[in-house]
């Protein structure tokens, strides 16, 4: 399989990114051709701090390597170092009706966070660039969280429309999801945990902060007598971070009222901390050598550019340029 996926350097990676996407990247990297990107052009579609931007990119790469993404096995790179992605995005934008973009859930959600005059065309066009990221390498399998499924579907639509008009040039990609395909906010279980919200657990959070966040997570939303969405979310985390038998035990005990949520939360905080401490240590070691990260990114981007340029040449030839 040829795999492509990316993450925005718009804040610290959180356990939602880890469980929804990166855990799959790690599994796939051994047996597949994997291309993983820090998608910095995507990150500028919403407000960001330019003084910290370069550093954020390096930190994101360091976190990915610390989690277990092996830069020897995968092609880890920074999106803006392969400018052919944006060239292809322009071309693809000419085959997609704009109405398709307005129906994207992420656009609707992100644009309601901003006043109308501040919503950039980039935010609307984001899925076209994402389609270009995928289609330029003929990636067939895209490991993402559930929130990105709609965008991968749009990439399929774009590929199909393009192929219909100009001949079979692009591979139609498909999504693969992890078991924990969507981690919700600890404060509001109707929203997904995100990098920009303070409602999630960042991979770099200290043990004290993790404990505080988990202990103050909401539990009492939803219909009385039923397991609430907030508790379901916590159960999902127990399943992902705890011992395999623990979740069934907790469900039983809570239904029988023999334990309270506070005990589940204490267990969960401990398990998350156990998982994150070695990742945090590795992150510190990697960040001590920023030049090495920079070199890896540049080498990978140079190699990928060759592939991307060949594809663009082919596309333009078919289009009659
Ligand atoms: P964020 O929305 O946190 O900025 P990105 O857009 O950079 O994250 O997404 C990186 C990857 O993490 C994507 O594959 C996305 O689907 C996944 N992801 C993001 N948030 C979650 C979540 N709350 N639960 C599961 N997966 C998620």
UniProtKB/TrEMBL annotation:
Q: Does the keyword Nucleotide-binding apply?
A: yes
**Annotated motif 'HIGH' region: location in the chain?**
9-17
EC numbers for this chain: 6.1.1.2
The source's domain of life comes to: Bacteria
Q: Which UniProt keywords apply?
A: Aminoacyl-tRNA synthetase, ATP-binding, Cytoplasm, Ligase, Nucleotide-binding, Protein biosynthesis
**What is catalysed by this protein?**
tRNA(Trp) + L-tryptophan + ATP = L-tryptophyl-tRNA(Trp) + AMP + diphosphate + H(+)
Protein biosynthesis in keyword set: yes
Provide the top EC class: ligase
| One Pfam family named in its UniProt record | tRNA-synt_1b
Q: Which residues bind L-tryptophan?
A: 133
Where in the cell?
A: Cytoplasm
PROSITE patterns according to UniProt: AA_TRNA_LIGASE_I
> Looking at the UniProt record for this protein, which Gene Ontology cellular component terms does it annotate, in alphabetical order?
cytosol
MF terms per GO, please? ATP binding; tryptophan-tRNA ligase activity
The residues that hold ATP are 8-10, 16-17, 145-147, 183
Family affiliation: Belongs to the class-I aminoacyl-tRNA synthetase family.
Supply the HAMAP family for this chain: Trp_tRNA_synth_B
Please describe what this protein does.
Catalyzes the attachment of tryptophan to tRNA(Trp).
Name of the protein in question? Tryptophan--tRNA ligase
């Amino acid at each position: 399989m040829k795999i492509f996926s990316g993450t925005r350097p718009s804040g610290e990676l959180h356990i939602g990114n880890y469980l929804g996407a990166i855990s799959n990247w790690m599994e796939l990297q051994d047996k597949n051709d994997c291309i993983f990107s820090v998608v910095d052009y995507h990150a500028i579609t919403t407000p960001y701090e330019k003084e910290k931007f370069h550093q954020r990119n390096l930190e994101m790469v360091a976190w990915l390597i610390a989690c277990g993404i092996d830069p020897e096995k995968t092609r880890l790179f920074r999106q803006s170092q392969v400018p052919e992605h944006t060239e292809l995005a322009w071309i693809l934008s000419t085959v997609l009706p704009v109405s398709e973009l307005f129906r994207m859930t992420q656009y609707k959600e992100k644009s309601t966070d901003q006043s109308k005059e501040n919503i950039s065309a980039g935010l609307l066009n984001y899925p076209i660039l994402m389609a270009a990221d995928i289609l330029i390498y003929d990636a067939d399998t895209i490991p993402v969280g559930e929130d990105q499924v709609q965008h991968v579907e749009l990439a399929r639509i774009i590929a199909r429309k393009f192929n219909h008009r100009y001949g079979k040039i692009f591979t139609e990609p498909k999504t693969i999801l992890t078991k924990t395909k969507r981690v919700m906010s600890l404060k509001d279980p109707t929203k997904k945990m995100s990098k920009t919200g303070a409602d999630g657990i960042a991979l770099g959070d200290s043990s004290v902060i993790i404990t505080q966040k988990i202990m103050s997570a909401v539990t009492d939303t939803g219909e009385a007598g039923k397991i609430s969405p907030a508790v379901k979310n916590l159960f999902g985390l127990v399943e992902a971070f705890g011992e395999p038998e623990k979740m069934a035990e907790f469900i039983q005990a809570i239904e029988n009222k023999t334990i309270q949520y506070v005990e589940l939360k204490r267990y969960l905080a401990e398990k998350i901390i156990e998982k994150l401490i070695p990742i945090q240590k590795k992150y510190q070691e990697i960040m001590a050598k920023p030049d090495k990260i920079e070199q890896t990114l540049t080498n990978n981007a140079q190699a990928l550019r060759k592939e991307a340029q060949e594809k663009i040449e082919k596309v333009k030839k078919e289009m009659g340029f």
